[in-house]
């Protein structure tokens, strides 16, 4: 993957690399272009993503991000015992590892993802979870279909209109339902996405919302990541009809020695890498 000095590299996602000749830049990218780019990128890179990170993610573990915060310990969706018989929508589910953990708690998860290839990996692991291939911005479910919704780095960082996703999640949730999602911590946007010391010096404005785009030789986006500040994300959640209950910034645990793209013990001990928004449907 190419990277320009002034462009924060796409983070949780990028290390598998995209089209060899892709050029990294910062420019606007609308909803349709972002969605098309995400589907293509994840279809092309799903194999590498799963082979590189599958062991850490585990087949039936619910990990919120590279720090390794586990839902079994964090209980951000509620105590594990309360998940029994709950209808749960996982958005941007990838190979549905989180859904498989939810099913083990007695919940009824549905795993949704835009990428056909990611969902094929879900099938490779097991055919126990209902899978839906769809865009988070247009959820193919009736109003009030779910008790809970969750997303570990799925969809939200990649969409041009996150408020639309919030509204869609609000629509398909029942009143009082929780919506918990993790994204790259917004402060990371200001730093180069490097795991070493070079990733500790501010190189771009935290306030510059211009999307990070990799484009092919004809200028078509092949990867897009959208930046929102912390305040933007709070406003998005509220505009979508949610109350924000908590904003969790997992600290880097001593046991975790892995590097994942720009995430590393070095940086993780100094600056946050993941932000988890715990919301409740008003
Ligand atoms: C970083 S992966 C996370 C996958 C999984 N949650 C995990 O922790 O491994 C991001 C996922 O979001 C999916 N995604 C990206 N944009 C999406 C969209 N607009 N709608 C639904 N899924 C999307 C991608 O296909 C990919 O599987």
What do these coordinates show?
- It is built from seven helices and ten strands.
- It has 282 residues and is α/β, with parallel strands linked by helices.
- It has a single domain (23-281), classed as 3-Layer(aba) Sandwich (Rossmann fold).
- A seven-stranded mixed sheet has the order 4-3-2-5-6-10-9, sandwiched between helices. Strands 1-7-8 form a three-stranded antiparallel sheet.
- Helix 1 (31-57) packs parallel to helix 4 and helix 5 packs parallel to helix 6.
- The longest helix has 27 residues, at 31-57.
- The chain is globular and about 45 Å long.
- S-adenosylmethionine (SAM) binds at residues 12-13, 35, 38, 42, 57, 92-94, 113-115, 118, 135-137, 152-155, 158-159.
- S-adenosylmethionine binds next to helix 1.
Structure at a glance:
This protein is an alpha/beta fold. It is 26% helix and 22% strand.
Give the % helix: 25-40%
| Model regions low in confidence, pLDDT < 50 over at least 5 residues | 1-18
What's the CATH topology name?
Rossmann fold
- Structure class: alpha/beta
> In this structure, how is the largest beta sheet organized?
7 strands, mixed
Distance between the termini: 41 Å
- As a whole number of angstroms, the C-alpha radius of gyration is 17 Å
- The top-level CATH class is Alpha Beta
